[in-house]
Amino acid sequence: MSDVYVMGVDMIKFGRFPDRSVPNIGAEAALMALDDAGLGIQDMQALYCGNLGQANAMVGQRILQEIGQTGMPVVNVANACATGATAFREAWMSIKAGMYDVVLAVGVEQMGKGLLGGAGGGDGIPKEGLLGSGTMPCVFAEAGMEHAKEYGTTFEQFAKISVKNHHHSTMNPKAMYQIETPLDEVMNAEMISYPNTKLMCSVNVDGSAAAVLVSEKKAKELGMKRAVKVRASAMASDPYTDRDLVMPDVNACTRLAAKDAYEQAGIGPEDVNLVELHDCFATAEMLHYENLGLCKDGEAGKMIDEGHVELGGKVPVNVSGGLLSKGHPLGATGIANIYEVCTHLRGEAGKRQVEGAKIGMTHVIGLGTACGIHILEKTN
Amino acid sequence: MSESKPLPVVDFLKIPEDGDPYLEGYRCKKCGSIYLGERNVCSKCFARDEMEVIKLSDTGILHSYAIVFRSFPGIDVPYISAIVDLDGGGTIKGNLINIDPDPDKIDFNMPVKITFGDALGRKDKEGNSYLSYFFEPA
Description:
The complex is a heterodimer. Chain A is of the alpha/beta class. Chain A has one domain (4-113, 203-378): 3-Layer(aba) Sandwich (Peroxisomal Thiolase, Chain A, domain 1), CATH 3.40.47.10. Chain A is 35% helix and 18% strand. In chain A, the strands form 2 sheets. A 9-stranded mixed sheet of chain A has the order 3-2-4-7-1-8-11-10-9, with helices on both faces. A two-stranded antiparallel sheet of chain A has the order 5-6. Chain B has one domain (7-137). In chain B, strands 1-10-9-6-7-8 form a 6-stranded mixed sheet, with no helix packed on it. In chain B, strands 2, 3, 4 and 5 form a 4-stranded antiparallel sheet that branches. Strand 5 (191-194) of chain A pairs antiparallel with strand 6 of chain B.
């Protein structure tokens, strides 16, 4: 099987674009990724398009209607917040399978404002606020409080994660916000679901990201200089756990996918120089330090207290600003984080550059549950 | 004309003709996993047609929680969204009531009991009332 390389990758600056269409937002990133690869739409053999909000509306084909209808096969995918990573992984698999040498993956989303989620649908009466809460800040607060119960993790430690990611985003011109948020500001912001304040919740934004993936043969032909090697592409769903029915499990599937990814790459967590992980809420990021093996179980609080996950630390996490400040356009997130890691591996990340980065990891979680992990490596 | 009886807020809440309401579970006879709501296949051990209907306990311990200060429009806040492990098996989620929504007052693993009562005055389109379950400190 051929190795697979990212030859072009880019994302638009995340923001709010209510006057644009979903395909139009996706088309912009697609063109940017093609330019980055030095290729045109006519060179693509297939398109894998990730979008959640219009999952039944042929977004991939509508993107091609804006940038070039070559007749190539298009697959539209939806997999909750793992949608972008799933599109990328489908593209990766098509090259692995020997079907194609050059394919395009696009992730795009246009979000409304406000709370996502909600408990119980169906007949009868609304269950929200009656049988607990199904809002996302609450669901992830409950997951964080499970960690607090086990290890004594504090509100302040969760809040520090948000301080860190907002700080990182001040160095990322493509993030939604570039604003420092000191600890007292994070902790005193409007409480949404304890222990997540408003500044500890990801930002609903519009955005898109895209990548051109190529086979080794094609990469050599185009030149390896800025190519990034995909060392692993792993995906898992949630295995059975006792509390599944009431507590969406983001831990077990992340651990499964991480194990698979490290095995594929033949490396361990200690070899990873930077990680972009799914900080949909500050409470979630804390869990994934352990789920991804960046530290031992019970040591996540120490990771943030001692600065190991900051830029300049042992393993910087979410130097892009993460979903907390860069923003979280659901379908785009799983390719935008690949853009971030590739930018560091290419040495092009400017002020936020993780010096000497050779190997990076991306991680997303879609509740329901899907986990997608990619490991990427610098080629020269 | 007598007032009509309240309806159960979820299918697994049972209201017997003669007796107290209770929560119902399905237990896999092969591996013991407990589910809420009817099913035929166990998603843990994959056994088929091995489910038995059981009455779930009305006591348990608090596994995890969050305190909700912002919900959808029209929903009263704050309230405690709680995850409770039932004695004898099964985990359910609901509102923890009769305790301050203050993390200093809420202890993990605290014993709770299930109570049944009107669903906060909520009615469906036909005007039916509903019976819901709640947790309170035991």
